[in-house]
Design a protein that fits this description.
The protein has helices at residues 5-17, 49-54, 144-154, and strands at 21-28, 36-45, 61-62, 71-72, 75-81, 86-94, 99-107, 113-123, 132-140. The protein has a four-stranded antiparallel sheet, with no helix packed on it. A three-stranded antiparallel sheet has the order 1-2-7, with no helix packed on it. It is 19% helix and 43% strand. The protein is an alpha+beta fold. The protein has three helices and nine strands.
């Protein structure tokens, strides 16, 4: 029996629209306990050449037959610490087109040491299996300003 032609077309439309996104990231500069830190993220969507030429800057409609209205693609970047059960930063991207450069700024952990944070790229749509998780190893240095402040107060 198999699928009807209309059902097959829906499957093809979904598969063709399924996003393949590459992500690169790095911690920018020195990380000091309790001070602001930055994670720089680069996102790039793999597209077929014909899509690439015709869809620059076009918002992508999600194939969601039973959603009730048109659903546009959206994304979230999240930095968290699973061990401490803490979310450090959340940033909504919406549909970022073919490429995006994003800076995630948040405060470093309060204590110096090595931390294994997690960086997530999460779809706000129904794309099960396309969310991504990366390990983000961060070495947090002592905050020497506190010691300097204490010394100044003693004088």
């Amino acid at each position: 029996k198999g699928l009807k032609k209309e059902e097959l077309n829906e499957v093809i439309e979904f598969c063709n629209g399924f996003p393949t996104i590459e992500m690169e990231y790095r911690v920018s500069g020195d990380v000091v306990a309790g001070k602001p830190m930055r994670v720089e993220v680069e996102l790039e969507r793999e597209e077929e050449e014909e899509e690439e030429e015709g869809n620059r800057g076009v918002r992508r409609r999600v194939v969601a037959k039973y959603y009730g209205k048109e659903k546009m693609e959206g994304w979230w970047l999240v930095v968290g610490d699973k061990e401490r059960n803490v979310v450090l930063k959340v940033r909504r991207l919406g549909d970022f087109g073919r490429r995006a450069s994003v800076n995630l700024d948040f405060n470093a952990p309060e204590k110096a040491g090595e931390y294994n944070l997690n960086l997530y790229l999460i779809s706000d749509s129904y794309y099960l299996g396309c969310d991504q998780e990366y390990d983000l190893e961060v070495k947090v240095e002592e905050n020497n300003e506190e010691e300097d402040d204490d010394m100044e107060e003693d004088e």
